[in-house]
Amino acid sequence: MRKETVRRRRTRAAEVVGRLEAQMPEAKIALRFQSPLELLVSVVLSAQCTDLRVNQVTPALFARYPDVRALAQAKPEELEPLIRSCGLFRNKARNLVALAQALLERHGGEVPKRREELEALPGVGPKSAGVVCIHLGGDRSFPVDTHVGRLARRLGLSAEQDPSQVEEDLRGLLPPERWGRAHQLLVWHGRRTCTARAPRCEACAVRKLCPRLGVGSPGPRPPARVERIPADRPRARP
Ligand code: SF4
Predict the structure, then answer these.
(1) Which atom of ligand 1 is found nearest the CA of 211?
(2) Which residue from 37, 63, 72, 135 has the least number of CB within 10 angstroms?
(3) Contacts of 155 (CB under 8 A, 6+ apart)
C-alpha cells in the first residue's frame, strides 16, 4: 500500500477536474427550471427519482402553481396526481406545500441562498441545499450525491461512506471556487462513464489518475491509501 501525500492528492484532484472539464465543457444540471422556486421544487422532486422524470412532471406542476403563494395554499392531495410518477409522492407533496409556507413565513417568499437556511426547509437535505446554493450563487458547496460519493471513493479522494464526510474530504482537496463545477463534472462522469455497475475504465478520461479503488479488476497502479486530511490542515473555507 502506497501512502499519498495530501499535496499530491490535491494536485491529482485538480487534474481530475481539469480533465473532466476538458472532456465535458457542456456539463450542467439536467433539471429544467426558470426561477429559484422552480429549481428548489425540482430538486426536492428529484430525490430518489431521475431528472428526466422530474422534467416530465414539472411543466404541469408549475403551470398549476405558478408562484410560492399558489403552492402554499394548495392541499397536498391536489399535488399528488401531478407528481405521482416521481415516487414518494405523498411525502413530496406534503413537503412542497410546507416548504412554500415556510418560504413565506421565514423568507418573504424568496428562496434563501444560505445552505443552513435551505436545509431547515421541509424536504430539503444537505445535498439538495448544496445543489440549490450552487445554482443560485449562494454558499459555496460541494454536494455529494450517489455519483459523487462513488467517484470520490474509486478515485481515492475519500474513503468515507457518509456524504457529509465525503464532502468534507473533497472540500479539503479543491479551492472553494471549484467546488460547484467539480460537483457537476463528477455527476456527469458518474452517469456517463464511471457508472455504479459497469465503469468504462478503458474509455475514461481520468484513468491514469485513478487507482480504481473498489473496482473489480486491477487498476493501472497500486491502490493508494486514503487518509483523512488532518484537521489542522484544512483548505480555507469561503
Ligand atoms: S478509471 Fe474507472 S473507476 Fe476510475 S474514474 Fe474512470 S471509470 Fe471510474
Answers:
(1) 4
(2) 63
(3) 13, 16, 206, 209, 210, 211, 213
36-136 folds as: Endonuclease III; domain 1 (1.10.340)
Task: Quote the pTM value.
Answer: 0.88
Domain locations along the chain: 2-27+142-225, 36-136
pLDDT digits (tens, 9 = 90+) for 223-238: 445 666 654 454 544 4
Average pLDDT over the chain reads 92
Task: State the distance between the two ends of the chain, measured CA to CA, in whole angstroms.
Answer: 34
Any atom of ligand 1 within 6 Å of the Cβ of 154: yes
Was domain 2-27+142-225 assigned CATH 1.20.5.420? no
Please give the distance, rounded to the nearest whole angstrom, from the Cα atom of residue 195 to the centre of ligand 1. 9
User: Does the CB atom of residue 157 touch ligand 1 within 6 A?
Assistant: no
